[in-house]
Every structure is written in structure tokens, then in C-alpha cells.
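Minutes, structural biology subgroup

Action item carried over from last meeting: produce the C-alpha cell record for Metalloenzyme (Deinococcus maricopensis). EB confirmed the sequence was re-checked against the source entry. Recorded below for completeness.
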Amino acid sequence: MTGVVWLALDGVGHPQDAPTDSPWATDLPTLRPLLDAGLVLDATLGVEGLPQSATGQACWLTGQDAVRVMGGHFGPQPGPTLRALLDAESLPGRLARAGARVDLLNPYPPAYFAARDPAQGGRVHLAHGSFPHAFLHAGRPLNPPGLPSISPLLGLAFAEPHDATATPDDLRRLGEQVARAARDHDLLTADLWFSDALGHAGRDPTPPGLWRAARTYLQHLNALLEGLLHAGARVAISSDHGNFEDLHVKSHTVARVPFAASGLPLSLADGTAPATIVDGGRVLTRWFT
Ligand SMILES: [Zn+2]
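Output recorded by EB:
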């Protein structure tokens, strides 16, 4: 059976918890039906404050309550406590130790490695995000050779006003390539953090260019998903916390988050539906056991 392609969105609250003028008010003929058929999960875990990426992603990666482990929401990068949790419990590590084929499809530019290389003026202890940390600890390289890469920019320029650098057709073709690669893998993951960066650019009044970029981002995600599904991939979409769905504010939000999948069951082992991102992480694990 073909592997799972996990699109891990960063900072995307569910449309149900978004303001009416959210970027979700965009025609997304493949993405929206999949999300609407999926689940709406709590990312606060009953803890005050705004959910953050390191703890949120550790919940997804481990199926453990990383917020409780940390004593609060924490991010964006995992520190020693969360790294230890990831090293012991993360899904890529557990799968790799069991002989499964797992990879992270993000492209990492030379500057990413230089920033962590003292010989190039970098800092050896500069932390990785939860996803690169988990895959490196699983023994997988960043920029895995022979695989297509999914840039978190999804065909937008990094610099404002984030003009499109690719077309929906480009994203569709990329989705088909990734689906083909998934036939030889158990898990292929993309850490799609640019949605959180767009969310942090939010302000009131929201600049028209930011609206346009956010809507294009979702349209490109929709096209990527179309390509994946057209070529027969099993796909999961998750998010660690809210932010992007409300472009009036620059901070994270307490919005619930989407968890959707095609060709994969969204229930826990006892048949109940997940309610939180910790449950969501447990469902991910279940698909491989
Ligand atoms: Zn953020």
C-alpha cells in the first residue's frame, strides 16, 4: 500500500473558528470538502495562553501531551525538554527504528546549515524546529536525495508582498510527483510553516497584499492536494495552532485546528473521535500499527 503524505500546516486555525473575512473565504474545491469532512481539534489542551509551535508539533509528532510536559505552551523551537520527548517518542523515530521508510520533504537552503556550523560563523547549538529535529534524530537527512521537495512557501515569494512564483498547475504536478514517491515510502512529511509567517504579518487594517498572498497560499495548497489525490496518495492534513485564519492580529490564536485525511481513518483505537491535537497524534501513530 502507498505511504502516508502528511501535510503539517503551521498556525492554521479551522475555518469554523475563523472570522467571516478570513482567507478561508476562498474557493478551494478539493481542500475544503476534505477539511469539512474531517475533525476540528482543540489545540489549547486546557492550558492558558496562546498555543505555540514547539509544544503543538510535539503533540502531533508524539501523541503525548507536550504542553503538560513543558508546564505550558512553548515555542517556536523545542528546547532540551521537548527534544528529549521527541527523541524518545516521535513518530518518525519510532517508524525508522522499526525499519520503515520516512522522510521530511522540506528543502533546506545552504544558509540553514551555515547558521548551525561554527566553521561558517554559525552556532552549533542553534535549535532545529520540531520536524527537522525529529527526522534528523530518526537518522534521516535533511534534503533527502532522490525525492521531490515541498517548499513551505508553496509557490509564493518569501518577501512581501509575496507574489506568486509558481502556478496552481505547478503545485498540482508537484503533488503528483510526491504521490509517486510515496509508493516507496511509509511516511513523507512536509512542515508547512509559511502559513504561520503570513499569520504573524496580520494587522488591522489588513494590507490587501497580505489577503492576496494568504488566499493564493490556500489555492496552492488546494492544487497540491489535488495532485496528491489524483495520483492516489493517502493524505493527512493537520495544524498545530491558530494564527493565519485571522489576519487582523499578528499573534497566534486559540482557534481550533483542522485534522483531515483521505484514505485513512480519523478515529482512535477505541473507535472514538479525537478531540485534541494529542489525540490527533495518537491517530497518526495508529495508522502504522
Ligand atoms: Zn508563530
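Discussion: The chain has one domain: 4-44+101-264.
Next step: EB to file the record with the rest of the batch.
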